[in-house]
């Protein structure tokens, strides 16, 4: 519960009865005053920075006010995708709400949220969540610069808010509704006149776990894919103890030759097809009888839809236009690249607890009845298990070559950090790199390292993967 507006003076939660305060006792400040001092401290604090005055301030500078119309005046409209205004979601909103789009100074926003550990103390379990707004009226070389990002909400830790993030988003959504419905009177320094400024949210941006928190669709379990929704092809790997999402080739054209490659995939001919993505209206119909329940008393059952990955009705549906947005939630590609890079390097260098090729994975292959040449072989006395090397297994010499290429790479100033400091050639490990380092390695460096150290059967797919990600 947020102690805000009508609940501002409450002292306990209306849902579970928990106290708003924590009692802290301190000793007296002097020998003459030895008594203990009792203070009330808030159980948790959220910091919110009002949005309206910050949007108004953007039009107080003549040069910046002119840039706020770049998406309509300065953008080249030649059919190429360079800016969100070139995309279908932007154009669909312009068509559906002509009164909003007719005023080119109205602001289109994106909401980005993720947890981080402050002070770079990565060994401590802590998660502080900032909610940041991106101003898409600006040209692409300005809208993502740090000084143009709008910090809206700061949710303090030490734990992730999870589905309860909607409680913390209430002030922002309330202000966004007001900005959409009535707007605010704003002075434009470029024209020297007042106008009615309105704003809308195009989408959210997050990693995949954050997608589940913001959208309400659980990204874990049997139906963890929000694109395939109820037709998700999932399988539980009992030896690795995790869910596996198979049948990716069902996204290919019906007559694509890869649908008939049995040995390369799951041993079956793929005859399945994909369904259409759930629209905002579809989600609203599913959630018509759903009632959110945040927090709650211990042991209390929460209202949910049976056999459904939907965990809540997202607070974004309070915005009048949200159900009509084509792309309500977007994934941050650089997060995905970091995960892919971790898995590739950990598996190639066989780093402990980082490799995806282990005994349990081989037992899962045996359980599925595929890749028989990789099945584990138990000894006659059952004392140990032998596993045959995979095609991507590297010798120590090949690992040295891969690490040396990454270690000695000379990069242009400013395009990436010093990647060589994350490479340990003696232990043959690459650890500690950040998301942007993984992006650069996966898109450019890794393909050279693979070409130097691996056979073409392994190197060529990695080179094509790098080309695919560069295309995105």
Topology:
Blueprint lengths: L20 E6 L10 E6 L3 E3 L3 H6 L4 H6 L2 H4 L14 H9 L1 H4 L5 E7 L15 E7 L4 H4 L6 E6 L9 H4 L1 H12 L2 E5 L4 E5 L1 E8 L1 H8 L18 E4 L4 E4 L34 H7 L42 E3 L1 H16 L10 H10 L8 E2 L6 E2 L9 H12 L15 E2 L4 E2 L4 H19 L2 H16 L1
Parallel strand pairs: 4-9, 9-12
Antiparallel strand pairs: 1-2, 3-6, 4-5, 5-6, 7-8, 10-11, 13-14, 15-16
Overall SS class:
alpha+beta
Helix content: 25-40%
- The total beta strand count reads 16
Shape: globular
The first-to-last residue Cα distance is 41 Å
Beta-strand content estimate: 15-25%
Number of helices: 15
Can you summarize the main beta sheet? 6 strands, mixed
Radius of gyration: 27 Å
Task: Summarize model confidence as the mean pLDDT.
Answer: 88
Explain this structure to me?
This protein is an alpha+beta fold and 472 residues long. The strands form 6 sheets. It has a 6-stranded mixed sheet with strand order 3-6-5-4-9-12. A two-stranded antiparallel sheet has the order 1-2. The protein has a two-stranded antiparallel sheet with strand order 7-8. Among the domains are: 5-42, no CATH class; 46-216 and 314-331, no CATH class; 394-471, no CATH class. The model has no long low-confidence stretch (mean pLDDT 88). The chain contains 15 helices and 16 strands. Helix 14 (435-453) packs antiparallel against helix 15. 29% of the residues lie in helices and 15% in strands.
């Amino acid at each position: 519960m947020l102690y805000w507006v009508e609940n501002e003076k409450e002292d306990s939660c209306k849902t579970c009865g928990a106290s708003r305060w924590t009692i802290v006792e301190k000793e007296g400040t002097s020998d003459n005053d030895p008594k203990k001092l009792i203070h009330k401290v808030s159980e948790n604090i959220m910091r919110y920075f009002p949005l309206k005055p910050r949007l108004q301030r953007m039009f107080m500078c003549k040069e910046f006010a002119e840039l706020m119309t770049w998406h309509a005046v300065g953008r080249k409209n030649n059919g190429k995708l360079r800016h969100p205004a070139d995309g279908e979601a932007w154009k669909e909103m312009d068509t559906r709400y002509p009164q909003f789009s007719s005023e080119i100074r109205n602001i289109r926003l994106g909401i980005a949220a993720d947890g981080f550990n402050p002070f770079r103390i990565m060994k401590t379990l802590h998660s502080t969540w900032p909610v940041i707004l991106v101003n898409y009226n600006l040209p692409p070389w300005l809208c993502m610069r740090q000084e143009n990002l709008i910090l809206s909400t700061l949710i303090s830790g030490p734990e992730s808010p999870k589905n309860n993030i909607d409680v913390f988003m209430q002030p922002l959504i309330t202000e966004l509704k007001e900005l959409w419905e009535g707007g605010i009177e704003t002075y434009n320094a470029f024209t020297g006149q007042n106008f009615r400024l309105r704003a809308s949210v195009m989408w959210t941006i997050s990693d995949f776990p954050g997608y589940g928190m913001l959208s309400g669709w659980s990204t874990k379990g049997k139906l963890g894919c929000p694109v395939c929704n109820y037709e998700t092809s999932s399988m539980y790997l009992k030896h690795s103890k995790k869910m596996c999402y198979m049948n990716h080739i069902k996204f290919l054209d019906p007559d694509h030759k890869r649908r008939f490659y049995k040995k390369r995939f799951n041993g079956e001919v793929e005859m399945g097809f994909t369904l259409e993505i759930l629209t905002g209206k579809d989600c609203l119909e599913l959630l018509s009888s759903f009632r959110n329940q945040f927090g709650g008393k211990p042991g209390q059952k929460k209202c949910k839809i049976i056999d459904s990955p939907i965990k809540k009705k997202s607070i974004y549906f309070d915005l009048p236009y949200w159900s009509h947005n084509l792309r309500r939630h977007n994934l941050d590609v650089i997060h995905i690249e970091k995960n892919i890079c971790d898995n590739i390097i950990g598996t190639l260098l066989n780093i402990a607890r980082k490799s995806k090729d282990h005994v349990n994975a081989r037992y899962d292959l045996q359980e599925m009845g595929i890749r028989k040449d990789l099945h584990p072989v138990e000894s006659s006395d059952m004392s140990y298990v032998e596993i045959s090397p995979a095609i991507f297994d590297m010798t120590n010499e090949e690992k040295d070559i891969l690490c040396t290429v990454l270690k000695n790479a000379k990069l242009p100033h400013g395009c990436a950090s010093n990647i060589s400091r994350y490479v340990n050639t003696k232990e043959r490990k690459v650890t500690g790199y950040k998301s942007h380092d993984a992006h650069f390695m996966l898109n450019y460096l890794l393909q050279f390292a693979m070409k130097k150290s691996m056979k073409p059967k392994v190197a060529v797919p990695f080179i094509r993967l790098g080309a695919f990600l560069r295309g995105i």
